[in-house]
Design a protein that fits this description.
The chain is α+β, with helices and mostly antiparallel strands. 39% of the residues lie in helices and 19% in strands. The structure holds adenosine-5'-triphosphate and magnesium ion. Adenosine-5'-triphosphate binds next to β4.
């Protein structure tokens, strides 16, 4: 089978706390993504700031990085043809009130700040974000 491209997702603390890990992973599988790496961890403030470095200076940066450290997250690398764009379609708009019906953020997000999941926004960032969480030994 031909290998697809990669994207990096995080199930954010709000969604983990509310018991949505199972339902979100089920939808990821149903949508045809293959999980090539996965871990359950809690980010430190420094790690969250490093991950979201591109947003430093924006008005929501401090709330975002604090929220991402509130509890454990699930980080995973997903593989599929056209992984970045297809996953962004599956998760929907950043603001759950604007996300399409059936998308992960519509189903499981609370607000634009407390949305349910992250998805990489380019192939380049997918690689950078995958390297942030996973060594080569942790990918299958
Ligand atoms: P993510 O990177 O988490 O997948 P995204 O790519 O849809 O989300 P970004 O613009 O990269 O959106 O913003 C990163 C995160 O910052 C969002 O998921 C959200 O939690 C928060 N955020 C973005 N815009 C706002 C905003 N206007 N007000 C509050 N929080 C925001
Ligand atoms: Mg983003």
């Amino acid at each position: 089978m031909a290998k697809g491209t990669l994207t990096l997702t995080m199930i954010k603390p709000y969604a983990v706390e509310h018991g949505y890990v199972g339902p979100i992973l089920a939808r990821i599988n149903e949508a045809g993504f293959r999980i090539t790496a996965m871990k359950y961890l809690q980010l430190s403030p420094r790690q969250a700031e490093a991950f979201y470095e591109v947003h430093r200076g924006k008005p929501f940066f401090e709330r975002l990085t604090k929220f991402m450290c509130d509890g454990p997250i699930v980080a995973a690398i997903l593989e599929k043809e056209n992984a970045v764009d297809d996953y962004r379609s599956l998760i929907g708009a950043t603001d759950p009130t604007k996300a399409e019906e059936g998308t992960l953020r519509k189903l499981f997000g609370a607000s634009i700040e407390h949305n349910a999941v992250h998805g990489s926004d380019s192939d380049e960032n997918a690689l950078r974000e995958s390297d942030f969480f996973f060594s080569q030994l942790e990918r299958f």
